[in-house]
Amino acid sequence: MGAVAALLLAAAACTPAENAKRPEAKPEAAALVASDGAYPFKVGSLQAYALLDGDNLVPNDNSVFGVGQTPDAVAAVLAVAGQPTDGLALSIHPLLVKDGDRTVLIDAGAGAAFGDKAGKLAASLAEAGVDPAAITDVLISHGHPDHVGGLVAADGALTYPNATIRMSQAEWASLQANPEMAILVQAIAPKVQAFAPGAVVAPGITAIALAGHTPGHTLYEIASDGQRLLYAGDTAHHFVVSLAHPEWAMGYDGDKVAGAARRQAELAALAASGERVYFHHFPFPGIGRVRQGAEGYVWVPEG
Ligand SMILES: [Zn+2]
């Protein structure tokens, strides 16, 4: 007997009563399987997804990491952690939170801004079963291309046509003042609602001002049923080097002194609290906790 025939016979042997005794399949649970681009997880009763947009390899040449240090100094830190020493891999992964009747995307990925290194967010959203038209809110941590580039398609159309785009007043002012972002600013302006620090931007989601990386850099605290997750934006970029040496100057920080000071203070706070945190550039899905290490801090990923 062939395998298919055997299966058919086995299925036919199940009476309706036997079928009824089987545990109920949970359609939601069945749908929430991690894929290459979509990692489902919970924050209290909220369903969240880490959504992969791409990967960016930064050379170990002190232009971005360890500005003012030497490549050997950066390589030594990477080697201790068992990481390649010729480059530093940065993931790009926005976060989706289904928050009651709101579907909230936090940061929008790079779109076409990073060429073929990124721009996979649409596919990852599809893997999570979310239509771009269903996004009600896009919360922006800051106005760098890997966080806002994906707001607009190559033809200038809004990627999330029904979404209100929310960012801090300071960040919106900074974005509008950047001539390189003029086309994007024009496209998104009718949809932007800028908020003041500390605003509650969606049910259970609070904006926390953390200037340094950019003037209006914002963290988002997501709270539900006694659980919390802190979306930490670009407070730290590399899961080894940024934690081992948060005091090192960082090329992407608009204000390198303020950026380093904020990074040190925030990592100290995260290590002290043990709070669950989400880093947009750490290895996908970027969820975990920060612990005090022998040298600086150590990333403890979830799962
Ligand atoms: Zn970034």
From TrEMBL:
In this entry, which stretches build a coiled coil? none
GO MF terms here are: hydrolase activity; metal ion binding
Instruction: List the CDD domains.
Output: OPHC2-like_MBL-fold
Which parts of the sequence belong to the Metallo-beta-lactamase domain? 91-281
Q: Which keywords accompany this UniProt record?
A: Hydrolase, Metal-binding, Zinc
TM region(s), chain numbering: none
UniProt lists the family membership as follows: Belongs to the metallo-beta-lactamase superfamily.
Stated name of the protein: MBL fold metallo-hydrolase
Organism whose genome encodes this protein: Brevundimonas goettingensis
Its taxonomic placement starts with: Bacteria, Pseudomonadati, Pseudomonadota, Alphaproteobacteria, Caulobacterales
